[in-house]
Amino acid sequence: MKKEKLNQITVTNPYLTLPPLCYDKVNPTPLKNPFLIHANNNVADEIGLESSELTSDEFVIFVNGDFKLQGSEPFAMCYAGHQFGYFVERLGDGRAINIGTIGKLHLQLKGAGLTLYSRSGDGRAVLRSSIREYLMSEAIHGLNIPTSRALALIGSTQKVIREDWERGAIVLRVAPSWIRFGTFEYFAHNDKPKELKALLDFAIEESYPHLKGEEYHHFFSEVVGRTARLMAHWQSVGFNHGVMNTDNMSIAGITIDYGPFAFLDDYDIRYICNHTDRRGRYSFGNQPSIGEWNLQALMVALMGVIPKEQMEKSLARYKRLYSEHYLYLMGEKFGLDGVNDEDFELIKSGLLTLQMLQVDYTLFFRTLSRYDGDRKAILDLGLYHQPMSEWLDIYDERLKKNSMTTQTRITKMLSINPKFVLKNYMIQEAIDKAKLGDFELVDVLFKIAQNPYDEHEAYERYAMATPAQFKNQKLSCSS
Ligand code: AMP
Ligand code: MG
Q1: Is-contact 299 318, C-beta < 8 A?
Q2: Which of 31, 118, 163, 475 is the pocket-test mutation for ligand 1 (most atoms within 8 Å of CB)?
Q3: Are 472 and 268 contacting, i.e. CB atoms less than 8 angstroms apart?
Q4: Could you report the per-residue pLDDT of 147-165, keeping only the tens digit for each?
Q5: Nearest CA among 54, 6, 32 for reference residue 113
Q6: Potential cystine with 126: which of 161, 166, 456, 465 (Cβ 3.0-4.6 Å)?
Q7: Residues whose Cβ atom is located within 5 A of ion ligand 2
Q8: Which ligand places an atom closest to the C-alpha of 162?
């Protein structure tokens, strides 16, 4: 793609071709005294922006919503959603403003002020949650999992009230689609078949162009498939999203809306990262079934335009699709050359062993990646040795049947099992420093996030088990 300066770029606004009920045109409200914290060269590349522009004063003004790209007609999107199982009939971008589309990516400013859908909110995002979203979306991308990403993060001196006074920030985030399950729910609930159908055609064009002209039920079937795959990805890397409300579920099957997320520390299927989720609806282990629950809500919303029986058939395939993909990914993590029924037992008992011995999930797989018969490093990860030793007996037997040489397996596993995931205590360190005006750790974590399989020797401590005092913490939803 040809590289251009900011003032040479022209954007389009395809979403505005939808009926007016779908959006509200609104200009961003800039923050006071904005300054650049970080910019993403790779995303700049993807949208054809010259990298030298990222350090210019104009760029900060642009991310602050104070400079419109040619063609830009800013707007917020309207949606509804099931929050913690209860339907909320009107949500929408309360603090996100879309500023245009370049190629396949839609640019959006998060924290850029009030919109028609702000309800009682202030339209702002605080520095802490903006750093979290900025870093984690890149980390999820670095792990080859579909996600929104971010072009830039700016801070400001503007005060924003949460539990305490904090500073306002803006993330310029990008995604191939910002349409949510809840976007469909909004038009179904309000009995707007024209809008619903227009949205459906739009979503197909945007995220499933190969289905144009096909019957609509194929669309639902593919959303089921992509959601199942996404859940399998999250489970395989130990990612807990934390707020899987239907308004945070992407119709394109990508990870969006980063809130109180966490990577697992010690493997624990019951882990709940979201402090307000008392009953664990969105616990780590519940994610795959919540994915299915959300698809069910989507199915209800689409019933006016797609025959229910056909959607039910697609939904009935969800569990199998999820399991197949999860087992495939886990087989790779364990260094197996294919997964059969016996391997399923091996994987299950491996995970149970981790849970019982309170072993760090990421560290386990990285250590196993170097396994050549010498058990010490693996046994030392757990509280005591025996259960892991027994599991390794079964694993050794399985490895004998593997078609790969040990060296090939080790090389492959090291390219699949990350050395680093961004755990919350690491991001918190970066936030604490950022609050004092030091953004170096944001940059360090960003680089680690982009290359999680590399060694990064200087940051060995981040590859170790999470320090005991920071393990399995919960995060508040406030952001
Ligand atoms: P979330 O849980 O962050 O996905 O947000 C749920 C809904 O609340 C979405 O419609 C958001 O746009 C809205 N929202 C969250 N925080 C704010 C805020 N500070 N100002 C306005 N709307 C907000
Ligand atoms: Mg959201």
Answers
A1: no
A2: 118
A3: yes
A4: 999 999 999 999 999 999 9
A5: 32
A6: 166
A7: 248, 257
A8: 1
